[in-house]
Amino acid sequence: MEAYKQEFIEFLFGCRALQFGEFTLKSGRVSPYFFNASLFNDGNASYQLGLAFARKTNDVLVDKFDLFFGPAYKGIPLAVAASIAYHKEFGIAKGWCFNRKEAKEHGDKGVYVGSKITDGSRIVLLDDVFTTGGTKEEAVAQLKSTAKAKVKAVIIAVDRLEKNDEGKSAIREFEGKAKVPVHAIVNADEIFDYLHNKVIDGKIAVSDTDYENYKRYKEKYGV
After folding, report:
1. In which element (H, E) is residue 200 found?
2. How far apart are CA 79 and CA 97, in angstroms?
3. pTM value?
4. Please, are residues 152 and 122 in contact by the beta-carbon 8 Å criterion?
5. d(Cα 57, Cα 61) in Å, to the nearest integer?
6. CA angle at residue 159 from 166 to 162, to 5 degrees?
């Protein structure tokens, strides 16, 4: 596993954005773990998350993109943090942009805030997780209709590797419709395999029981 993934997993665990136990999700599924991106709410946490996005983007696209896009509202700090981290890590200035929920009719009119999207703009769309993909489909369609922009990739923080209620992968369904690849900084298998019986700050991150609970969950809901 790449070093940046290991650092990211340990950071998720250390700041308790990644928790293990029993959690009822919005879908009604009872999950053995929970990823809470709302805990990235200070300067250090935001930068560390942005750095992980920057490294994953560089891993996937190297320098073949122009700006980070974050769908309103949760994607806004992700795009800004990734842009800052990319410049600090790789010495290259990349733009950031986000959309408004409603177009502004005065001042800087329009639906976008940040770097201007022009013909051929190569965009990386960032988000924390992937559920149904509906919001991302809307964002991709909107971006592609704006100055013939090109969405090069969607990058998410954590891929839960789960199927939807129809028994299909929501990510694969999205990729087929939008014709845009989806990449995750880390996925659930990588998290559990890396943290299984690993001692962090004097305690085991993922116990044998946690690991077995995940395996049973994956057998039921995994893609």
Report:
1. strand 199-200
2. 7
3. 0.88
4. yes
5. 6
6. 25
Number of domains in the chain: 1
Count other Cβ atoms within 10 Å, centred on residue 182.
21
| Token pair belonging to 53 | 């996005």
Q: Which domain holds residue 15?
A: 3-221
Contact (CB, 8 A) for 80 and 96: yes
What CATH number corresponds to the domain at position 199? 3.40.50.2020
Burial 109-134 (b: 16+ CB within 10 A, else e): eeebebbebeeebebbbbbbebeebe
Q: What pLDDT, in 10s, does the model give residues 21-57? A: 999 987 888 999 999 888 899 999 999 999 999 999 9
Q: Is residue 101's pLDDT more than 80? A: no
For residue 96, list its beta bridge partners.
68
Catalytic annotation, residues? 104, 106
